[in-house]
Amino acid sequence: MKNLLAVSFVTLALVGTEALVSERSQPEIYANKNICCPRQNGLSIDLNRGTFTGTLEGVSHPSFQAQSSANAKCSYMATLRANFQTLTKCLNDWHQDGCVSFPMCGRRMLRIDMFLGDDRKGYMFNVGDSPSNNGWGGDASDTENDAEIFGLYPTLFEFKSDLCHSMRTTWANSLLAPDVKRVTIFVANNYVKITNDKGFEAKDCNRCIFALSGQDPNDRANALYMAFNRVISGSYRSGTGVCNVNIRWECPGCDNDGN
Question: What is d(CA 113, CA 90) in angstroms, rounded to the nearest whole number?
Fold first, then answer.
């Protein structure tokens, strides 16, 4: 009887181990089941009034600056930063081609929804992993990890970091008024996805996009910087047209642009 029980326990253990290995070797199954993380409260920014509501773990409160020369609506400028959690070794082992493509809770994918007004011009937004990103792939040579996305009306630009010689991608008219009213950006380590409400979608998964998992020894916080109606490094490159912004942590593998 003892031998029979021992065999049974061993069989169960082997079956359980096999199931676990099977699940871990196929992380995309989780994404297909839409098993997403519990949705957190978000941060909402009003660039018509220069106010915000809500708080979000790991994300600073926005700093506002009025544009004295701008008479248009939605002309307040704002900057803030988000600190990402470093991926564990186990999670890194589950990467597919370097991207996280399965649900995983925590501060590992940020969703930025921007709602646009009718009056648009200039530098509408800038998202990057260097505090001195200023558009056009520049950051005063402060760091090699200086990838950025920015909108210079009516066009979207992506610049990879210095590690890829600031390689540029351009999406013309992806911010064009009055048809485009919302632009959404998903950011994770080495990953970005951009959509708008007119069916535009672009994805990039590359080691030269957004180093947000401990790659930079001088950035232990894994910081992502955001600027609206200006560039990150200063107001000398400014614009108008981003009226409201909603920010929340999203679940990798569940990066759709639905509500």
Answer: 30
CATH topology of domain 37-249: Jelly Rolls (2.60.120)
Helices then strands, counting H and E runs in the chain, come out as: 3, 13
Beta strands in 28-108 (DSSP E): 43-46, 51-53, 63-65, 77-83
Report the predicted TM-score, pTM, of the whole model to 2 decimal places: 0.81
Residue-level pLDDT, tens digit, the chain, 259 residues: 444 444 443 333 333 333 333 333 333 333 334 445 556 679 999 999 999 999 999 999 999 999 976 577 899 999 999 999 887 655 554 455 555 555 566 888 899 999 999 999 999 999 999 999 998 887 666 778 889 999 999 999 999 998 898 899 999 999 999 999 999 999 999 999 999 999 999 999 999 999 998 888 888 899 999 999 999 999 999 999 999 999 999 876 666 655 5
How many other β-carbons are positioned within 10 Å of the β-carbon of residue 185?
Answer: 21
Q: How far apart are CA 40 and CA 117, in angstroms?
A: 27
Residues 70-88 as b or e (16 or more Cβ within 10 Å = b): bebebbbbbbbbbbbbbbe
Integer Rg of the chain from CA: 21
How many other CB atoms are found less than 10 A from the CB of residue 203?
12
Sequence spans of domains, the chain: 1-33, 37-249
Specify whether the CB–CB gap between 134 and 237 falls below 8 A.
yes
